[in-house]
Design a protein that fits this description.
about 30% helix, about 25% strand
Length: about 130
């Protein structure tokens, strides 16, 4: 089956990528090799306390939906924005298929796909006008 749409839910540990149409869904789960840990800042320490994004992980996630016609990127924190920044810097051609970036906490797989279907249904309706 053909899947034009995709939705990605991403945090710093994993990404769930769903390619879907109205009746079918294919799921792929990617795990970061070096998941970042939350670092608490200490007084008089050097640096921001922020560990940089795992570029290899972000590249693998971007590659996983490169064949989609439109993708919705979702997640609870900064990883979704880091993915978009990675795409802009390393694979700008993919930027054109990003339909949106949404904050979504920790939905079940079914909830995420339902959210994406609803999002694209509204988005597709607006695009035809």
């Amino acid at each position: 089956m053909s899947h034009y749409h995709a939705v990605v839910w991403i945090d710093h540990r994993e990404a769930k990528v769903f390619h879907f149409n109205a009746t079918d869904v294919e799921k792929l789960v990617l795990h970061a090799d070096r998941p970042t840990k939350q670092i608490h800042r200490k007084a008089n320490s050097i640096g921001s306390g922020h560990v940089g994004a795992d570029q290899e992980f972000l590249h693998a996630v971007a590659h996983s939906f490169a064949d989609a016609g439109a993708v919705l990127i979702a997640g609870p924190a900064d990883a979704k924005h880091e993915l978009v920044t990675h795409i802009e810097k390393h694979d700008p051609a993919l930027k054109k298929i990003i339909a949106g970036v949404e904050t979504v906490d920790h939905p079940s797989d079914g909830q995420l796909v339902a959210f994406a279907r609803k999002y694209f249904k509204a988005e597709d309706r607006m695009a035809t006008k």
